[in-house]
Design brief:
Blueprint: E1 11-17, E2 19-20, E3 32-33, H1 41-54, H2 56-59, E4 63-71, H3 79-92, E5 94-105, H4 112-120, E6 125-131, H5 135-140, H6 147-159, E7 165-171, H7 178-190, E8 195-200, H8 208-211, H9 219-235, E9 239-242, E10 245-247, H10 254-260, E11 264-268, E12 273-278, E13 283-289, H11 293-301, E14 306-311, H12 317-325, E15 332-333, H13 334-341, H14 349-357, E16 361-363, E17 367-370, H15 372-376, H16 378-383
Helix pairs in contact: 1-3, 1-11, 4-6, 7-9
Length: 387
């Protein structure tokens, strides 16, 4: 079967800044503590700019709809470094006039003046890794900030002019009660964010928590936290649009929405991932860059930082698409499957019927939408699309 694409998907840019002050015991991202890894800011930014230039042939003049600066702790980088980086992006890329530019920040590594300078650079969305407002929970998570510092960071962001900001929170924490989880949400809502990302703590392989698991709440209690939390946010004018994402006044994350709708993205930086649709050859490519910052810098100099490259096989694509799209609570238009995969919806007709029979999915003529049960048992739903 041949994939047929009629137009390019939307395109985003992800920039990975991998250093942090202290790696959290639950974190499985490619992050490196400054104390154990040389923090070579200028050399790394030089490498990022060179790396971006190497991507130009791959994307040509395609329009970029969002930029996300993630980590690690990007707020460790100076405004001067980010200015160089963003200027390079503006010079080399076709950036939309209404582009969303997000930076992640850790409340334990920020200064008010730095936030003001970030905002002046054209960064228009702030994502703060709060995780909890409870000091005991923050300690158990290995965070370097306390509740007061979290609230101070939010104030710094507001004073700097960030009208669009997200608060990251986690639930299902060690020794956390349902009331504790709801208290975190209440304190978050009191800060008037435009977006809340509310994630369940999961124990990931190759983390400190994997080798020394903390005692977590029972599964039924975690589910109650999730249900009551979603209800509380809805009562406070937040609309849920993805399993872990809630927005006020329709301030969805444009960058993350592009991931969930199987759009394309360039990834630059150590350990970054990318996905590009090549409509002329009718294929979708994924690639990964070297994860060690020092080695990444060297390899960019040799124009060889990509360590993994893969063309998605036809039988892999439905699952890849659904792993993202079925996280969206309102589902996706049926025709998006063809637009983003180049494959006819008939290819997964049997799987859709099976998911419907299991009350995991609602398939209307023009929409594919996970049911309430499908959202709760998402892994069971996705298993159906594995081939």
């Amino acid at each position: 079967m041949t994939q047929i694409f009629h137009e390019n998907p939307p395109l985003s840019l992800y920039i990975h800044l991998p250093w942090c002050i202290k790696k959290c015991p639950y974190c499985d991202f490619n992050s490196h503590e400054i104390l154990t890894s040389a923090f070579r800011e200028e050399l790394y930014v030089n490498a990022l700019i060179d790396d971006l230039n190497l991507e130009l042939d791959r994307i040509r003049d395609r329009r970029i709809i969002s930029i996300f600066i993630g980590g690690g702790t990007p707020s460790l980088f100076s405004p001067e470094s980010l200015d160089r980086l963003l200027n390079s992006a503006r010079t080399q890329l076709n950036l939309g006039s209404d582009i969303e530019v997000t930076i992640e920040a850790n409340p334990g590594a920020i200064e008010a003046e730095k936030f003001r300078e970030y905002r002046a650079l054209g960064i228009n969305r702030l994502s703060l890794g709060i995780q909890s407002f409870d000091n005991q929970s923050l300690t158990s998570l290995g965070r370097i900030h306390n509740s007061s510092e979290a609230k101070r960071a939010i104030e710094f962001g507001k004073e700097a002019g960030f009208k669009n900001f997200n608060l990251d929170l986690m639930f299902g924490l060690p020794n956390q009660s349902i009331d504790d989880a709801l208290s975190d949400l209440k304190q978050a809502v009191d800060q008037l964010p435009t977006h809340v990302s509310w994630y369940q703590l999961t124990i990931e392989p190759n983390t400190v928590f994997a080798s020394k698991p903390p005692k977590l709440p029972r599964e039924d209690r975690i589910w109650t936290m999730q249900e009551k939390g979603a209800k509380f946010l809805k009562e406070n004018n937040f609309q849920q649009y993805e399993i872990s994402s809630f927005t006020r006044e329709n301030h969805i994350s444009i960058h993350n929405m592009n991931y969930w709708q199987f759009g394309d993205y360039i990834g630059i930086g150590a350990g970054s991932h990318g996905k590009i649709t090549n409509i002329s050859s009718g294929r979708i490519e994924r690639y990964v860059r070297h994860k060690i910052p020092e080695r990444y810098i060297e390899l960019v100099g040799c124009k060889n930082a990509i360590t993994e490259k893969k063309v998605l096989e036809i039988n892999e694509i439905p699952l890849e698409f659904m792993m993202n799209a079925l996280r969206l609570t309102k589902g996706i238009p049926t025709n998006l499957f063809l637009e983003r995969t180049g494959l006819p919806i008939e290819l997964i007709k049997e799987e859709l019927l099976l998911a419907e029979d299991g009350d995991l999915l609602n398939h209307y003529k023009n929409k594919i939408k996970p049911s309430f049960r499908g959202q709760r048992y998402l892994n069971d739903l996705l298993q159906i699309f594995m081939k």
